[in-house]
Amino acid sequence: EDKVVQSPLSLVVHEGDTVTLNCSYEVTNFRSLLWYKQEKKAPTFLFMLTSSGIEKKSGRLSSILDKKELFSILNITATQTGDSAVYLCAVEANGNKLVFGAGTILRVKS
Amino acid sequence: DSGVTQTPKHLITATGQRVTLRCSPRSGDLSVYWYQQSLDQGLQFLIQYYNGEERAKGNILERFSAQQFPDLHSELNLSSLELGDSALYFCASSVQVETDTQYFGPGTRLTVL
Q1: pLDDT of chain A along its 110 residues, tens only?
Q2: Nearest-CB residue to A96 (from B43, B98, B107)
Q3: Is the dihedral of CA A42, A45, A48, A53 positive or negative?
Q4: Cross-chain Cβ contact A96/B2 below 8 Å
Q5: Residue contact B57–A95, C-beta within 8 A
Q6: In whole angstroms, how far apart are CA A95 and each of A27, B7, B49, B55, B112?
Q7: Which residues does chain A have within 8 Å of residue B5's beta carbon, measured at their own beta carbons?
Q8: Is some CB atom of chain B closer than 8 A to the CB atom of A3?
């Protein structure tokens, strides 16, 4: 059975801290791994990763994929209160379906 | 705003009823995906259509069905509704059939009483 596990489930940090969110997966016929940010509405796309070892960056956010060890991390530096959200990891697997992890709840305190 | 539209925004109905949720993809996107998000199950993939044809099926119940029309909009039909069907239903679209970024609509919140 395809599985995506995210950790931690939840964390609280202070503004300015750096956080690392983890995503490990076991799926059939891996195609890509995606990160989304979800506030009180629809998920917003952050990154799509298909190749190992290539870091993708967007401002204070960055992500990298390790296809050998079957995991990805999402880093957020200099966190702001606006980064508070649920971060979802999803893996595109066999049959083009997306399998989602349960998400990591991030709360950034001012 | 992702460019994906969904109607209605909210829907309240009774058990046993049937509802239709509608999705219009971003201009130029040929793939449409449906997802269900509930508190206890998280985000679950239901079904994907590409240019009018079913491409992939996830955890979709037999009471649910979907289709994509020639103008590329899609409808998700939910019948014989149960309390447990109460959830947020998202539609997403992408340009290609696979390995492409999916953009999510704002969702339809379904409440079954």
Answers
A1: 889 999 999 999 999 999 999 999 998 888 889 999 999 888 988 999 988 888 999 999 999 999 999 999 999 999 999 999 999 999 987 766 788 999 999 999 99
A2: B98
A3: negative
A4: no
A5: yes
A6: 11, 27, 12, 8, 31
A7: none
A8: no
